[in-house]
Specification:
The protein is an alpha+beta fold. It is built from 13 helices and 12 strands. The protein has a 5-stranded mixed sheet with strand order 1-2-8-5-3, sandwiched between helices. Strands 4-12-9 form a 3-stranded antiparallel sheet. Helix 5 packs across helix 7. The protein is globular and about 55 Å long. The N terminus is likely disordered.
Length: about 350
């Protein structure tokens, strides 16, 4: 197959708008097609412009887009095609080059040639947070999780996303900075979050989705429930890492190159926007055995949502996962999903179950 689809039309770079404020970790470029041809429906698109060259007879099949219809409910087929056939391709809808393999995405998240991005746990976090009381954060996370769990323990049915996951990350931050409970949701996403987490303050919504995915993965399998009900901290942490790998809350991250970078399938040019398919990378069979299976006991763990350095947002996310399980199973020993309910993961940029309907009393 010709490598012409991997060449970026000149007009796409020249026509980009100035950088908008905000964190590219959760912000994508304009979804407006770079050229009229990008709006052609279906999975066959033609890249036009001086760099694309003439069309071969009968047209040309090019890479599917992560924004194609149906991708919100099931992106994994698109991701597989990109990994196997188009490890480097230019997407007119994203107006960015697309990387989908684990090795390339992991490199782009840490290599200094990829700029204009921030990920909690990356080196800047360690320099920004020096006076964080870890034991105090642990205490407020535990207390908040148990309060929320007891509030739903006597119900016949509950939605853990609406009644638990939506409140735990915000409540933990609020308790940590002394925001009264009644003012929690009004203030915590602004002043309170910034006071604790600085540049990572906006991660509260991401932690909500990560927690919902984690609980959905655990509760969907009775064997996992049994294994994690009274599990030691180490095993819960492995299950948390496994959930971040299999179902990361952020599916697409954006970076920009400061120099040419060789990757699978070619070279990303300098000064280019790059869409990193974190969700695809986590299910790359070249990196993970049986990548679609949720397995806390796997011997090839790894995740790309968070960096390895210290950051309150990363610390709190892990604590929230740990104490969510402990509080829910303590308050509701027979907790299980409601009859006939299975978690449905949805979303293009951020992704998680929108509801987790459970029976607290079994």
């Amino acid at each position: 197959m010709s490598d012409a689809p991997n060449r970026e039309p000149d007009r796409a770079i020249r026509g980009e708008r100035p950088e908008e404020p905000g964190d590219p970790w959760t912000r994508l470029p304009s979804m407006t097609p770079a050229t009229p041809s990008a709006a052609v429906p279906g999975r066959v698109r033609a890249l036009v412009g001086p760099a694309a060259g003439p069309f071969p007879p009968g047209g040309r099949t090019v890479a599917p887009s992560p924004l194609d219809p149906g991708a919100s409910l099931d992106p994994h087929g698109i991701h597989r095609t990109l990994r196997e056939e188009f490890p480097l391709t230019y997407d007119p809808l994203l107006r960015a080059w697309v990387l989908s393999r684990y090795a390339d995405v992991a490199t782009a998240l840490t290599d200094e040639r990829f700029t204009h991005g921030h990920r909690p746990g990356d080196p800047p976090c360690a320099r920004a947070h020096v006076d964080v009381d870890v034991e105090a954060l642990r205490a407020v996370t535990e207390r908040t999780a148990y309060v929320l769990a007891r509030r739903i323990a006597e119900r016949s049915r509950a939605d853990l996303v609406a009644d638990f996951c939506h409140w735990l990350p915000a409540g933990t931050v609020a308790a940590a900075v002394g925001v009264p409970y009644r003012d929690m949701m009004r203030l915590v996403r602004g002043r309170a979050a910034g006071a604790l987490a600085g540049e990572c303050g906006g991660q509260i919504a991401v932690r909500e989705k990560a927690l919902a995915s984690f609980l959905g993965n655990v509760l969907a399998d009775p064997d996992q429930v049994a294994a994690l009900r009274d599990a030691p901290v180490g095993l819960v942490a492995r299950a948390w890492t496994e959930s971040l790998r299999r179902d990361p809350p952020v599916q697409i991250a954006v970076r920009r190159t400061s120099a040419e970078v060789p990757v699978s399938g070619g070279v990303v040019p300098a000064g280019a926007s790059v869409a990193l398919l974190v969700g695809s990378a986590g299910r790359d069979p070249e990196r993970f055995r049986e990548p679609n299976r949720f397995d806390p006991f796997r011997d090839d763990p790894g995740q790309l949502t968070y960096g390895a350095g210290f950051c309150p947002a990363v610390l709190l996310a892990g604590l929230e996962a740990e104490y969510a399980l402990r509080a829910l199973f303590t308050a509701m020993p027979r907790l299980r999903l409601a009859d006939g309910f299975r978690p449905v993961f949805t979303g293009l940029i951020t992704r998680a179950p929108r509801s987790l309907i459970v029976r607290p009393g079994g």
